[in-house]
UniProtKB/TrEMBL annotation:
HYDIN/VesB/CFA65-like Ig-like domain ranges (all copies): 70-180
Annotated Gene Ontology cellular component terms: cilium; cytoplasm
Keyword terms of this UniProt record: Cell projection, Cilium, Cytoplasm
Protein name, UniProt field: Deleted in lung and esophageal cancer protein 1
Cell location: Cell projection, Cilium; Cytoplasm
UniProt feature, compositional bias: Pro residues: 773-786
Region (Disordered): 765-811
Length: 948
């Protein structure tokens, strides 16, 4: 068997492999051949495979290569609808593939026929006249969809149609048609109210007259010449409203027709009428020339929206004025984003008006229809019959007098009225108070009721307000009322002096001279004035001020019924609330009518205490020392009262001040002055500006204030020496100079003066640094010998043998000095007294006594310690005595009775020069308390020491 080679280059077949070496196939056996298909595109292909045998039999096997064909859901005719000339319309088409997968290409019909690219086709966009199709190539798997966008942009008015094909990659070609209509703007007013308009406001850009008449629905009977006359005229539709009253609306219906097949967005705008602009000499206005109408009473509903294509739209024009007057406005129907090519520029300002434009988009805003709105608003007119009410006879008190008044509405619209309420004390009521009247002569009635409670002539105007009107209607009313006759036994109520917090009573007699019972009401007049001399918080008087006391007069009974020609008595009580000269008025009322007025006089007082001094300043005060000041408390009223000073001190310096007051409490009589002693004690130095003392006075709302201030000084002590050296000054160092005349065993005394220059008592203590007495507690000094006669003086020198402790004065002084100098310093100083008290403003004398049992130059420091200051102060005073030397006594066996050595002459016996040394034994007695050294002069050198 032999395979015939294939004619198609897209199909290839492999030769079968047989087990026989010569390629023979036994019956029942088979050979496998492989067919390979290599297509250059996705089209359908056919081929035949021929197998020839040796017997001449030829077997033909057809081969078919086919894929599922795609199926697109796209109509054959695509309607884009109507679009304004120069405008643009986008149509989105959903293309769904319900068949096999394919790749598609959008081509123009000429491209499909000539198999070459169209010059109007750019990358991704196919331009077919006014139509634009995109995308030009797309791929759709099965059951997938894509969007095919068609843009229709007609350049002029008319019908447009184009064709294009969609080629599939399997070789199939689908043809489609695009149709659209180019239209122009055509809007007109059909009717106003119930009347039809013969003149139609319209404008077109181009096209013949016959086409215009057919497209705009013009009556076929109307000739083209008549239609042109209509289109050449400027159509301003006048809307005249009926005469109305303020806030009464009037309506008109305006029907606008859109003759083109395109929906047009619109809005209504109110401007000043064209007649006003043209009368001022202006040319055809544009948007910049038109003046918007502010607070216009006209409105169009709906104010904005969309005009449906080729149909009418009904608008409601409303006229709602707020006040009377004549109103005229121009209302323009404004279309925005209108292409200029759809307008006839030669008719601008006649058939349509330009309201603005955009050069970048070649569009403009136009007004094809202008409504001339006019209306008149008249004020409301309400007539009253009669126009005034005059009461010729006297009106009795508390008696109703009724009068009817007719109201007639002479206005066009319904009128709503409301009577104002008269004054309460006039006694006038109107019913009904409010209501409404139909227009055109509608009427109604109101009743005026007069019930007077006040006697005398009355004249007032009853005012009727009309809704939405600024001019009310006035009804004058005039009459006279006769009042009751009641007499009082006194012309005024004199209460005299009334203490605040108490009451005073008087009796009042009323007599009726009328024939009817009278309801009597006694009431104090509101706004009673009292003159009150006010007092400041510190107790010092201020200027007089006026105060008001509303309820200080009370009546028992406060109201009663007085029978005809009777006399009644009632009690008037005054309970004042404030002090001062009360000058008030009491009214006697009958049915709220004042028939009598009584003056009320009272002198209302409360205890009022003042201080002669509100501020007390102490120039010199001392810490811890009370400083007394005396102030006067004066009761300026006629009422006795009690007072009490508070113990607590207030103010800035309250922490540094303690005060005692005498008397701290008590009573003070009328016009009495009471002295008060204030003792203030300060605990710190410096300036204390404010310490406030409060005194509570019974009957006074605020306490009296006394302000204390002081300049407080501390403790100060000065020192001086009574016996000053000659030539010394006060600025030199303070010294106690005993001089060089101090003898042994002889006391020498100096006086130190310590002066307390303040009023602060304190204590003084002294101490010595080098030569104090031997014992901490000084021995008792011997008493000074009294002045006696010579005989008794001699007896005092003799010791009393009967008293074992008896001593002579010399022995007592010697023992006292021995006790002071027993430590062997050779000198000591005794201060008498060692401690003392320094009284205020006094000088204290300290006696400083020097005792010495050894010669020499002594220096010591006397320290004075003063307590009571902020810190302990020591005053050091230099003490410097000079003690002259003592002599020794040389004798053989005797001691001088005086205790001081006496120099005895030493006589040596004569000897020869060649003889041995001459010696003479002498005894030296030292009576002093200290060790001394002895030396020789003009004899052989010797030196020895003598113990005490």
């Amino acid at each position: 068997m032999r395979l015939v080679p294939l004619n198609s280059p897209y199909f290839t077949i492999t030769r079968g492999v047989s087990n026989h070496p010569e390629g023979l196939i036994a019956p029942g056996m088979h050979v496998t051949c492989t067919v390979t298909f290599t297509p250059p595109s996705l089209c359908n292909y056919q081929e035949e495979i021929k197998v020839q045998s040796d017997s001449g039999y030829c077997l033909t096997i057809p081969v078919l290569a086919v894929r599922p064909a795609p199926c697109l859901s796209l109509p054959e005719v695509i309607e884009c609808g109507s679009c304004l000339a120069g405008g643009r319309m986008d149509v989105d088409l959903e293309v769904k593939n319900s068949g096999g997968e394919g790749r598609f290409s959008v081509r123009a019909t000429t491209h499909h026929q000539h198999h070459q690219q169209s010059p109007t086709q750019s990358e991704g966009v196919l331009i077919l006249g006014p139509f634009t199709v995109s995308p030009t190539e797309f791929h759709l798997p099965p059951l997938h969809s894509t969007t095919l966008q068609v843009t229709f942009s007609p350049a002029a008015e008319g019908q447009y149609g184009e064709q294009f094909v969609i080629e599939c990659d399997n070789g199939e070609t689908l043809s489609f048609s695009l149709t659209g209509s180019g239209d122009v703007v055509s809007v007109g007013c059909v009717s106003i109210g119930d009347s039809s308009l013969q003149e139609i406001s319209q404008f077109t850009s181009d096209g013949n007259d016959a086409d215009r008449s057919n497209q705009r629905g013009v009556d076929p009977v109307m000739s083209a010449v008549d239609y042109d006359l209509y289109t050449e005229q400027l159509e301003e539709c006048s809307v005249v409203f009926d005469v109305v009253n303020p806030r009464s609306p009037a309506y008109k219906t305006v029907v606008i027709r859109n003759y083109c097949g395109v929906e047009l967005p619109f809005c209504w705008k109110l401007f000043r009428p064209i007649t006003e602009l043209s009368s001022s000499g202006e040319e055809d206005p544009v948007l910049d020339d038109l003046v918007p109408s502010v607070n216009s009473p006209f409105s169009v509903l709906p104010p904005s929206g969309t005009l449906p294509a080729a149909s009418t739209h009904t608008f409601l024009c409303q006229f709602l004025p707020h006040k009377p007057g004549q109103y005229v406005d121009g209302c323009h129907l404004v279309l925005s984003q209108v292409p200029e090519v759809s307008l006839d520029l030669s008719l601008e300002g006649e058939a349509w008006r330009r309201m603005g434009g955009d050069d970048s988009t070649s569009t403009c805003t136009v007004s094809p229809v202008c409504l001339f709105l006019s209306g008149v608003a008249q004020p409301y007119v309400l007539e009253l019959e009669p126009p005034a009410l005059l009461i010729p006879v006297a009106v009795p008190l508390a008696t109703d007098v009724r009068r009817r008044v007719k109201l007639v509405n002479r206005s066009v619209s319904r009128l709503h009225y409301c009577w104002r309420e008269p004054l309460l004390d006039e006694g006038i009521t109107i019913s009904p108070v409010s209501g409404s009247l139909v227009g055109g002569g509608g009427g109604g009635y109101c009743e005026v009721v007069i019930r007077r409670s006040v006697a005398g002539e009355f004249a007032l105007n009853l005012i009727c307000d009309i809704e939405h009107s600024t001019h009310p209607v006035t009804l004058p009313l005039h009459g006279w009322t006769q009042g009751p006759q009641v007499s009082v036994d006194c012309a005024s109520l004199e209460f005299g002096l009334v203490p605040l917090g108490t009451s005073s009573q008087l009796t009042l007699t009323l007599t009726s001279h009328t024939h009817t019972s009278l309801p009597i009401l006694l009431r104090q007049a509101i706004g009673t004035q009292a003159t009150l001399p006010s007092t400041s918080r510190t107790g010092c008087r201020d200027s007089e001020t006026d105060v008001t006391d509303h309820e200080c007069i009370h009546f028992t009974p406060s109201s009663l019924t007085l029978p005809p020609h009777t006399v009644t008595t009632l009690t008037v009580e005054c309970r004042p609330l404030v002090t001062g000269r009360l000058r008030s008025t009491v009214r006697c009322l009958v049915d709220d009518q004042v028939i009598r007025c009584l003056a009320v006089h009272a002198e209302v007082q409360s205890p009022r205490v003042v201080l002669t001094e509100c501020v007390v300043h102490q120039d010199t005060a001392y810490v811890g020392v009370g400083c007394e000041r005396r102030v006067q408390m004066t009761n300026t009223s006629l009422i006795p009262t009690l007072f009490s000073w508070r113990q607590q001190v207030e103010g800035e310096s309250r922490a540094h001040c303690s005060v005692s007051i005498s008397p701290s409490s008590g009573s003070i009589g009328p016009r009495q002055s009471l002295p008060v002693t204030i003792t203030a004690t300060w605990d710190s130095t410096g300036s204390h500006p404010e310490a406030i003392l409060c005194c509570d006075v019974e009957g006074m709302s605020e306490p009296l204030l006394l302000v204390l201030s002081a300049e407080v000084h501390g403790l100060a002590v000065s020192y001086s020496v009574q016996e000053k050296r000659r030539g010394s000054s006060d600025e030199e160092e303070l010294r106690l100079e005993f001089g060089s005349e101090v003898s042994l065993f002889t006391p020498h005394t100096l006086h130190l003066l310590v002066t307390n220059t303040t009023a602060i008592p304190t204590t003084l203590s002294t101490s010595l640094s080098s030569f104090p007495p031997s014992h901490p507690h000084l021995p008792t000094p011997p008493p000074p010998p009294p002045h006696r006669s010579r005989k008794k003086s001699l007896l005092s020198r003799t010791v009393n043998i009967g008293d074992p402790k008896s001593k002579t004065s010399q022995q007592a002084n010697k023992d006292y000095m021995s006790g002071l100098l027993q430590e062997g310093r050779g000198c000591c100083f005794v201060v008498d007294p060692p401690t003392s008290t320094l009284l205020p403003f006094t000088t204290h004398t300290l006696t400083v006594t020097a005792y010495a049992d050894m010669w020499g130059d002594y220096h010591d420091t006397l320290s004075c310690q003063v307590s009571g200051l902020e810190a302990v102060e020591y005053q050091s005073i230099v003490v410097s005595p000079v003690v002259h030397s003592c002599s020794t006594a040389l004798h053989s066996h005797n001691v001088a009775s005086s205790g001081l050595a006496v120099i005895w002459p030493m006589a040596l016996q004569p000897r020869e020069l060649s003889a041995s040394t001459i010696q003479d034994l002498k005894r030296c007695v030292w009576t002093g308390r200290c060790s001394v050294s002895l030396g020789r002069t003009r004899v052989a050198s010797w030196w020895t020491s003598l113990p005490p």
